[in-house]
Predict the 3D structure of the following.
Amino acid sequence: MNTSRSAIIDQIIEKRKPLAKKIQQVEANLEFLADKLGRLEAYRQTVLGQAKSQVVRQRLEMVNISRCKDSISNELKTLRKLRNRFDRPTLNVGVIGRMGQGKSTLLQSFSGLTDVEIPARVGRACTAVRSVLYNHEGATQVSVVLHSEESFLRDVIHEYWQELGWNEAPVNLNAFAYNRLPDLVDDDALKIEVYKHLKDYHEHVDKYRSLLQADIQPREKEISKQEIEEYVTQQRDSQNQLTTFKHLAVKEAKINCCFSNEDVGKIALVDVPGLGDTKLGDEALMLRTLRQEVDVVLFVRRPDPIRYQWEKEDAVLYRNAARELNQIAQRAFMVLNHQSSAGDNLSGCKELQKTISFDVVECLIVDCSNHEASNQLLDAVLTHLTNPDLRLDEEYFQFVCKSSLQQIQEDVVAELEKARQGYESSSFAEEERVDDLFEEFWEALAGSLKAKLGEIRSRRNDPDPAFKKQMEETLQHCREDTGVPPLSTIQGWIDSKGGPQTAYELCLNEVRLMLSQKFISLDQGLKQSLDQAKGEMATALANASGLSGLSQAKGAEFLNEVAQQIPNDLHILKEVFQTFAGFDLLYRGMIQHRIRPQLDPLTPGALNCPQISKSPTAQDILETLEELQKEAVYNCEQALKGSHETKGLLEEPSQAVFAIAEEFVDGVLWAKDVRAQWKKFLRRVRTKVWSSEFEVFDAWKDWQRLIERVEDANKLLLNDLLN
């Protein structure tokens, strides 16, 4: 490389400073918005204490300013973490991988540390705590961040409770230490393992409790190099029982050391425990680390010398990392650990390099134990990060912030709209004008609905066209697709199911089921008929009475939206709309009972089901089934269309449509107290129904001014989004 590593790293860190300043400005704008929202909320509470109008109170109670303030508070926490990320004085390289893949070996090659500082053992997972290695001149300094009681419960124990689906997590350390764990009733293998790890914390709490202080925040403790192993590793005996316990109280380990290569500058290596090997918190720890601490990630994978292929666990690890690390394709390297000793795995490395399907910057074969090879890997990472066309940090800022800021901005807009409605409802004093307009409305409503009902009444004894068309299509389908099994199937059933009689009964059931399912399609014709009537009534309501101002929807959807706007206390009027909008004509309610008797000849054991001869052939059964199916279809057609002896069903949909339409008109116009409920409803939606009559209103000046100030503050947030 033409430029030193330390200079390159300095360039990357320097490029972040404008982003940190940008975030600081966004934070200031959010805090400004939160202040204006707080003033609006205080005034809302004052008005609620003074307002005499029930309408005004109801509108103001709908305004949820606290929700917006909570969202802002959460976003400020996220932004502070992001600003800390961009203010960070180091470039952080995360190293992740499953147990035994060579993570610790690679970290040792990078840093020049040994097994003393970065414990690595053959055969079992040992690292149990996330560690961060900082390049630092001078002697090696080591510290551990110990959980406080609060962070231990929140970040560790409560995660187990949630994973196991338990309620009432312990509220303090004593509650966890002295109360018996709930029983595990789930036989899921993963949850059994989770439960075992939780028992490690519970059964040995007295062995690490002294490390958990009562402080709110975790504390940092300096330790010697020789103490690292007892704080960051776990040891188990031959019965898989823990023999070391301090790691259970450790949140993170920090090692400041002078890396073996002097030209690495402000770099930090982030080591995360092997996933699935130690504690439930490992995966959550890795995801949080990637999201908050890591600039680029190295997946370390050591292929087996004999059996080498990508495994399901590799895909899971990559997918989880991709979920948290934005632009992972530009931030991730796959490192295939070439191990020449104890069975050379170079062939496996080459095969995995050739077959990799994960989207990474580069898949490299590296001897993780070789200092020179690890430095070449670091060169490749830095070369990629200093590409002038790469805008990872800027894009990450957009990824983390843009959608949440936009949601806050939209939520504030929505609450301001509700605030205006509450203000609007208090401004009308022209109740006499409402009375006059209601009389005009009532006259138009009654005339329009009566006229439309008359049209529906005139055709109530006519065959319904939509239902008739659907019936003809269904009958034709029954004739074309009989459901009678082919001769080969019948012969096969005779041979395998116990003889001709059993085969015959099976065939009867097949044909009967096929026919009954086809007639369910009559639902479509019934629905079309009813939808037409609902559409006609909705049009009569909307056009004649001014109710079109309540919704732009058509048909049943218009009726539904009007019903939603009718308050629950106007239950008579609301129920009328809901009943009509939700009413359905169903095949199973209107038609099915007339069809099923025609299928009795296809029902084994029914009185009119013909018996088959004692020794029928498959051909005999086939011919009998074809005749029975044809007869059943004919009988169903007669039941639907009618005959000289019986009345058909073609007129019944028209009659049912008229009945429900007449019931709707009766309920809308003549139900007891419905006129009074109409008047109350229209008074509440008068600005929608009679918008031209109520364009001018006299607002509470202070309320309006506060709304405008929040709006101005929200525009600053919009500017943040646009820039």
